[in-house]
Amino acid sequence: MFIVKYRKIFFTISIITIALSFFAMATKGFNAGIDFKGGSIIEVSYDKRPDVETLTKALEKAGFEGARVQMAGESDVMVKTRALSEVERQNLSSTLAIKGLQMEEKQFSSIGPTIGKELRSKAWYAIILVILGIVLFIAYAFRHVSEPISSWKYGMITTATLLHDIIVPAGVFVWLGKEVDVLFIVALLSIMGVSVHDTIVVFDRIRENLRLKVSNDFATTVGTSLRQTFTRSINTSLTVMIVLATLFFFGPASTKDFSLILWIGIAVGTYSSVFIASPLLVVLEKRQSR
């Protein structure tokens, strides 16, 4: 299949995108949300919602420089700012009560910097544990496959593609200046789950074709397996991506970033499962046969 034949082109594309992602992370850095750095968030509702510029000017005048104003739904507004005392909270609420407009405070929450640091650590632990669990599962599931590639190499390649699948979406988010919060981590974990599912489907077909001895050439076996699973992988991902695109364009503002990173991640994950993971098996097989 052409994917195996032209694997160097696909590897090059991935290397370039990963390099650009790391460049964005190194130069711009992550825009951590209040979940990770601490802060306060207030959600209010208006009978006639003012525009972002009006609210931003009012907040700056009241001493809330750097506060982020985000529209939600048809009449709600969310304001994210630094951690506030009770007096500052009351001042913020009064500032948002624009003269001539009816306002209702729906919720207020605050996260201290210590809790934010703890959440950040747990997020990293969650990602590492998920990757480790996936690797161990694949190594176990493919334990009877030893020729021409050992089972642990399937797990190693899966790890490489999973890292690829979270680095690229993260790099895109950094480049776009999007805020990184708990939903961002949930999205990355979801991306890994979808990506590893597609990878296992292809790997399982390779294992089956090795058992059936469809060819004495490993590259041909991999190409045949990719051809047999290609349509299924693409169609499944496209279906999910259409749903996510609908959520992004027509869903509430609070889920736009979440649906965007999932959309990017599933696209990247499908690419890596089809164009990267299996061709890497061919590369390892050729190197060990030398």
TrEMBL record:
Which Pfam family, any one of them, does this sequence belong to?
SecD_SecF_C
| Domain named Protein export membrane protein SecD/SecF C-terminal: residues | 102-286
Keyword Transport attributed = yes
Q: Which cell locations does it reside in?
A: Cell membrane
Membrane topology classification: Multi-pass membrane protein
Which GO terms of the cellular component aspect does the record hold? plasma membrane
Question: What are the protein's UniProt keywords?
Answer: Cell membrane, Membrane, Protein transport, Translocation, Transmembrane, Transmembrane helix, Transport
Q: Where are its TM segments located?
A: 9-27, 123-142, 154-176, 182-203, 234-254, 260-284
This one is known as Protein-export membrane protein SecF
Which taxonomic lineage is given here? Bacteria, Candidatus Nomuraibacteriota
